[in-house]
Amino acid sequence: MNTIFRTDNSKSTIIIRLMVGLIFLSEGVQKFIRPESVGIGRFEKIGFDNFGFWANFTGTFEIICGFLLIIGLFTRISAFILFVIIAVALFKTKIPILVDKGLWDFLHDSRTDWAMSMGSLFLLLKGSGKIGLDYLFFNSRS
């Protein structure tokens, strides 16, 4: 279990943690304060069954995991959850663009999704870095 929480000495990892964490935290909050366009309404438009549940479920995990990334606690677990969320978003919202409009529209419309997925994957592989609670709690005891 310790390998999930161990991380390296990198101080610069905080840049990726802040990028991914703040964007997911913001998007999660918006699912609740702008439900028609970002939350329940968007999930209904996309075609989710039980769209209210999935919008709130997703928003809650984006808020929790985004915050955890910002402080660098449970970084790999949070990054994995957010990677799954963004993979579903890519599949549900961007693949139809690829099919209907072609490669260039797909690449343009999915640029944030790719950045978030790569940032999440980086954190999943790397951990929180030195400026994070994972490092403080799990590396300082070795």
From TrEMBL:
This is Uncharacterized membrane protein YphA, DoxX/SURF4 family. The chain crosses the membrane at residues 12-33, 53-73, 80-99, 119-138. It is found in: Cell membrane. Coiled coil: none annotated. It comes from the Bacteria. It is a multi-pass membrane protein. Keywords: Cell membrane, Membrane, Transmembrane, Transmembrane helix. Its main location: membrane. The lineage of its organism: Bacteria, Pseudomonadati, Bacteroidota, Flavobacteriia, Flavobacteriales. Belongs to the DoxX family.
